[in-house]
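Hello K.,

You asked for the raw outputs rather than the summary table, so here they are, unedited. I folded two proteins back to back in the same session to keep the settings identical. This is the first:
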Amino acid sequence: MDTGGDDSRQHVSDEVDRALRADVRLLGALLGRVLTEAGGESLLADVERLRTLVIAAYERDSEASIEDAEALVESFSHERAEQIARAFTCYFHLSNLAEEHHRVRVLRARAAAGPVADRADSLPAALERLTEELGAEETADRLQQLRFHPVFTAHPTEARRRAVASAIRRISELLELREAAEPGSITLVENERRLLEEIDVLWRTSPLRMTRPTPLDEVRTAMSIFDQTLFQVVPRVYRLLDDWLLGQDAGRRPAEAPAFLRLGSWIGADRDGNPFVTAAVTKSAAAIASEHVLLGLEHAASRIGRTLTLDEEDTPPTDALLALAAEQERLAGHITSQIGKRAPNEPHRRVLMVVAARIAATRLDEAPLAYGRPDELLADLAVLQDSLRAGGADRSANGELQNLIWQVQTFGFHLAELEVRQHSKVHRQALEEVRAGGELGEMTQEVLEVYRTIAFLQDRYGVNAARRYIVSFTQSSADLATVYALAEAALGSAEAAPVLDAIPLFETFDDLQAAPRILAEMIELEPVKARLAATGRKLEVMLGYSDSSKDVGPVSATLALYAAQSRIAEWAKVNDITLTLFHGRGGALGRGGGPANEAVLAQPPGSVDGRFKLTEQGEVIFAQYGDKTIAARHIEQMAAATLLASSPANEESNRAAAEAFAGVAATMDEASRLRFFELVKAEGFAQWFAQVTPMEEVGLLALGSRPARRGLSVESLEDLRAIPWVFAWTQARINLTGWFGLGTALAAVGDEAVLQDAYARWPLFTSMIDNVEMSLAKTDGRIAERYLALGDRDDLASLVLEEMELTREWVQRTSGHREILEDRPVLKRAVRLRSPYVDALSLLQLRALRSVRETGSTDPADAPHRLLLLAVNGVAAGLQNTG
């Protein structure tokens, strides 16, 4: 598949970075060879015919051209249509990895070009700005309190199979090796042969999962991120910060950079609407995570221990180290004896090697050698570090050993803090049954077993392994009280119950409005009072972006979430609460997605305060954390934004803008909500939505273990999960969940000067407009019209298309841009280069959808359904976001 030879696109291609263009051309050409070998010259010819037509249609905006492309798609046999869908999907996978590879290349080049503090969004730059505003002492205090807390979720938004992702990763590694090879060398020839082999594997690997992954499959997939990147990346980020803080003294003086990252996980613990997540699954999920982190710590301790060959004559041990060595000998004389024979005069090495053995015993649960808590391990490492410093070996004390300490502080023995989530309705039903007496139903027994599992996990891995309990659809303080009442019932008494922090999740518009009142009642509950006393009055509150957007539309949801955060932050300040707001953001714009670091800086005053927690899910996990260089950059950007969000200047800017544009916000809120309701509350809307998008068919994709809805049919949207709601509109190239109602809202304000002033001065509004620009860039009116024509409601189709054009018009008038994404040329070029190829897959999907609608087939194994699912998979890869 040749991507660089079409003259009609040369004006765009010429502007793309030469190295990236070369990578895409190489991979496209190799894919073309694979297609020819697999399907003959005719397959590649058909791919090229369709490619040429969709490019012509996109660039000339010619209806005849898009109709020609449609006619070609209709002429293909089912087998050929599937092959072409797979070919375009493979191309997108290769393009995506080339772009990721180039992103890494650019990041490395920037890092080599100058000091890290020169980057505006770096941690050193953030600290310099804070120091200018607050002084060195206050800045140092804020740094020590910094927390960035990503929470990985198993929400099914990753459309790729694990086997496909693995093949892509192998190709990416080969592309990286190729860069180091000499032109014309045998190494380069061998690299090309290996690339062809792996691209052939990618082509021959079915892109569709035949069965849904189990929750434990999802856990193991997430573990690959920890093993491949996070375990090594986290201390690297801390080290870069520490090197900047200490300058020439880095490595000689004790580290000043704090272990500011904490990792959370819902994978294997989030049971809201997922009947496959049981107490047994949660226990296994924790065991798998602990196995991975303890193996990592064990190997790191062994590796560092082997290098600590410091003779006791030059580096004498402290009395504390000798006492520790004696205690180790008492615990495991046979191990210390064996190690002592290999290192008789190297006490620091001996101690750390026994520490490694104790970590292994912890993993295998072998008492008495096993550590009981991570704090015990940290205490041993502190003794070792102090002894090295006392003996003059500062660099050994503050080097790799410090990295190990950071890893223990960050990951503990549990790796990620498991967070149980359950719907408030389930709790209410379970408690009613418990209090009624008699035999308990299966659901209630399972609810109670979850609490016993939490108690077990805390005893096995430490309290922080699983203490957060999130209550979906919290509507009153009674929903939080129920959590503690059920824990007491499960364990027999309040004293025997595990340590729990019940976290309200406010999701709907009404619940967001009621949040301060519910929280005021919540802190009067006796179990909550006890936890506030134990934690120094720390409290966590979660906000749901997905359901609030589905509830009142994206504009009103954004404004309601901002207002709710402001009210909750003010309430916390009045009540002396140290608040952490937990943002349930998704990858797609309709689920609170978009550049997260910009979103952090746009938060209301007092709502961040050096702590930021958010969900990371699906393709976002792999995009942000799958590569070491990108993961390090993402973590640094988020930490820097978290620090700066609470700077006096940033808070004052947000406060002043929110006050200045309060009237604009009120006008937009009312107008956008009415427009949104005009669509979604129209009679028959739910059935029409299912007709004009592949919403029902999305449920056939084995994306994740959780069902697409909580039990209701397409007759109602009330219980449809936000992910398929967003996914379906994205697949139809409409992206309605990201922008619908904004055009009406901006037109209701009507004053361009006011809107442009708001765009310049109001960070929340700026972020909203910029995110909608990205959403509109991936929206295609020509393709959207074809999806909307699948339904029999011209009134609803017209409403959607009119709002799309109105939004596009007013977004450009507000931003002052002549074209969408005018000020983001790299993203604009990427979208323009991809869009025609996505069009090809959309036309294939439309062909399949029409066939399914005409025949009424519900068999996912028939040819139209199979083509449809292949095209869904390809569009997801092309747009690089699903739900």
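The second followed immediately with the same parameters:
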Amino acid sequence: MPDHPSRRTVLATGSALGGTLLASGLTTSQANAADRTPADTSSGDPWRTVLDDADMVWQKMPATWYEGPFLGNGLLGSGIYAEPGAASTAVRFNVQHSEVQDHRPEFGSLFGLARLPIGYFTLEPVGAITGVDWRLSLNNAELTGTLTTDQGTLALRALVHNDRSLLAVEVTPSQGERGFRWVFHPAEAISPRAAFKELPDGYRGNPPAEITEHDGVSAAVQPLLAGGQHVTAWRERTRGTTRTLYVHVAHSYPQTTALDRALKAVRAADRLPYAALAVPHRAWWQAYYRKSFLSLPDARIQRFYWIQLYKAASAARRDAPVMATSGPWLEPTPWPNTWWNLNAQLEYWLIHGSNHLELDAITRALSEFRDNLAAEVAQPYRTDSLGIPRTTDPHLVNGAASSLMGYGVGIPGQDPPTPEVGNLTWALHNIWLSYRHTMDVSLLRDVLFPLLRKAITYYLHFLEPGPDGRLHLPATFSPEYGGDSRDCNYDLMLLTWGCRTLLESAELLRIDDELAPRWRDVLARRVPYPTDANGFMIGADIPFAKSHRHYSHMLAVYPLYEVTGRTPDERVLIEKSLAHWVGFEGALQGYTFTGAASMSALLGKGEDALHYLGELMTRFIKPNTMYLESGPVIETPLSAAQSLHDMICQSWGGIVRVFPALPVVWADLTVHDFRTQGAFLLSAHRQAGTTRWVRLVSEAGAPCVVRHGIPGPVDVRDHRGRPLDHSDAGDGAIQVALRKGESALITAKGDRPDLTVAPVRPNGDAPRWGLPLG
């Protein structure tokens, strides 16, 4: 990844990242004055303003995981809500960890390799609970507030520490509540899928955990039948009238070293009072948010957006496992592992525009465990091909399918059922996005190109010419429609994107690849995407004819941007396909509406995009912004944040499009340091329905073409206010030559707008997320 500029360099280009004023493009006297402007201007700290406004509050007791506060750091997660069946006597603090899993591959990824539940603490007051007043501070990633009982109050603060992977809960009781207690409840170490599906033959849960004492530190030691263990260790410290609980979880396989590690972690942490632990934790989170900024006039959606950034960093880190369907907050679910035919991809899209590549676990995992991808295709193809099945554990191992058939990814035209071939190629598209948003050539050279080459080679083994002279695919499966089809659009679209990307990458890397002629032949001769009177079909054998939540048949539209509406016929095809897809009620789910919103944004239909997001919020999003189908599913709210990104900025095809699909009611909007393809940092402001200014900082010196949306002639100036050469690129775009580290400010000709980055005024009041009164 390109080095970030130093603070001195950043300030020299006029971007006061820690403050609120962008000096770029001002006259010398104005720039000097800007340098003297304190960070805390009259508008205050804009990040603190929007974050404080987005805090979730609870004035009613949450009854479930999708109503309550949640804390996490990508590894350790805690969801907080009333103890089921005992709401007046106990509050549950769940303890789960994204690395804790079983290790019996013979039972598959959803049983034998499944994530395992760990357990939970109950906070048990002396009296009966009569009220709560809690606030989850996004800025500090910390829960604070009061639990009221008929015997007094319990003032609490809680966090999952960013660096130490530690749950710390500080409780200060009133006189009548000094006898409150904490109780740990180990969970049965069995796949959560056991509550939904019949157990495989021979499968049984792991033996019960044993609670032991170790010089003042308690530990629940969970042995695993396959070897190894996971351990929850905890200790409570009293300082004056305040008691602090310290909890750490460790997992080891096949060794039994987790106990020692967990004990050491608790002993190292409990020497520090809560306030001391909170200092570095808060500093990390506050720096995290300040990597980008967004404010829009819909208060409910703006708060939702910032909560998703909190949720993303609570659930994801580069070095953490790729998110399972529920993130680190494991609850009863039929899907207790990582899903690769949509979920993992959608979970990570928001990291690019929001400028949070430090959360990119997909690139790290696919690179680190690439050898396991060869084992998931049948033996004859392993020398030159890779694949990923529908589900895996964090090491990209599927388990049962590989044990039964010798491989996990089906063979096109041969395997009944579900030869679901395209999942790896789609996951590699996420790496392509990471490359394009950073222009880090090492991502392309060392990860994307070698993996994509082998993913596409798997397809090449099965492509065959038909009587029409076109190249055709035998039957494969389109997630999650049902039935196999020849020339399945899911696979044809990914194959097309993959071949095009390989050719572009080889040219950039100056690789004369022996397969390049094959890739060109595919692009020239592959069969057209199957369509009928209703638009895109599932495949040549299967029309789209029933309610279906997944847009697997439309990937060329979104997110691949291979079919974009560049011609009138193409636009009609997208509109017809989109309307037909969402027109079938019954099986539609939350991510149906995020996909529809992003496709509408591609077409420039901001009103439609907002309508689909409204449907999502009304129908599916829970009080704490979580999402539920048969169990927790984290990807949909996170992908809604990406739908917002797609309305605010699109940068596919080498053009940065500023505010391409805003609804009329979003007349004012501010974005700052939004990361685009080409490794540009975009800042822009819209006022009273007009874009006032656009600023781009180039991190890599890539070609800069921007459709700025400012009506009429424009001025383009550098960081010193000097005119910059630019040319008309057509269709409302200009091209500006920017070297690495340079910036361009675009305004209406003669305009000198205020460049302060500040929240915009909301159009109206909206309830907070959480469970507020009223």
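The mean pLDDT is 93.

Happy to rerun anything if the numbers look odd on your end.

Regards,
P.
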